[in-house]
Design brief:
This protein has 9 helices and 8 strands. The chain is of the alpha/beta class and 214 residues long. The protein has a domain of 116 residues: Rossmann fold. Bound molecules: zinc ion.
């Protein structure tokens, strides 16, 4: 089963991808993990990628595709994979399709987790993390026993810059501009599945599994 997860940042792609991967016994693959793994192992592609990252540049698409292609050759990905956060743009999706075709494989499902912007902003701006131990909380969904204080170490809880409404809105703008067109792309390819991402995590998972027919 070759699956791509689509959805805005904060829509819950990662959570669902992880659970689906566990359920189906296939790897949950993010390009961030592939990059870190290649860099820490000092592979040739990893060293090339590191050059771009160290220079403050984006890793070029063709290099990302090569890294992904390598990852798909590993034993655990033979039966399938779930991509989370990749592809991000139409050119990446086209390159991915081409690369998969060369391997005799293809994307079978693109699952879009639909969540309105307003809900994403509310979810993310409620996140808190402990500045001492890194534990995470939420002002509505995962409250600490005492407001603003970590249950585990009594450290102070703070809002990450990344989770501030202005930052989230900027990321959503980039998403709408560059990544959202993938929904139409995969719809045209006949592989799109859409789920309502405002429901409970378990409900969303059940809906995805129902739509995938497994
Ligand atoms: Zn703590």
């Amino acid at each position: 089963m070759n699956i791509i997860m689509l959805g805005a940042p904060g829509a819950g792609k990662g959570t669902q991808a992880k659970r689906l991967a566990e359920g189906y016994g296939i790897p949950h693959i993010s390009t961030g993990d592939i990059l870190r793994s290649n860099i820490s192992r000092g592979t040739e592609l990893g060293q090339k990628a590191k050059g771009f990252i160290d220079a403050g540049a984006l890793v070029p698409d063709d290099l990302v595709i090569q890294l992904v292609a390598d990852r798909l050759e590993e034993e655990d990905a033979k039966a399938g994979f779930i991509f989370d956060g990749f592809p991000r743009t139409i050119p990446q999706a086209q390159s991915l399709d081409q690369m998969l075709k060369e391997k005799g494989r293809k994307i079978e499902f693109a699952v879009n987790i639909d969540v309105p912007d307003q809900v994403i902003v509310e979810r993310m701006s409620g996140r808190r993390f402990c500045i001492n131990c890194g534990a995470s909380y939420h002002t509505e969904y995962l409250k600490p026993q005492t407001e603003g204080v970590c249950d585990k170490c009594e450290g102070e809880l703070a809002l990450r810059k990344d989770d501030e409404p202005e930052t989230v809105l900027k990321r959503l703008e980039v998403y709408h501009d560059q990544t959202e067109p993938l929904i139409a792309y995969y719809r045209n390819n006949g592989v799109l599945k859409e789920v309502d991402g405002t429901k409970e995590v378990a409900e969303i998972l059940a809906e995805i599994r129902k739509q995938l027919g497994y």
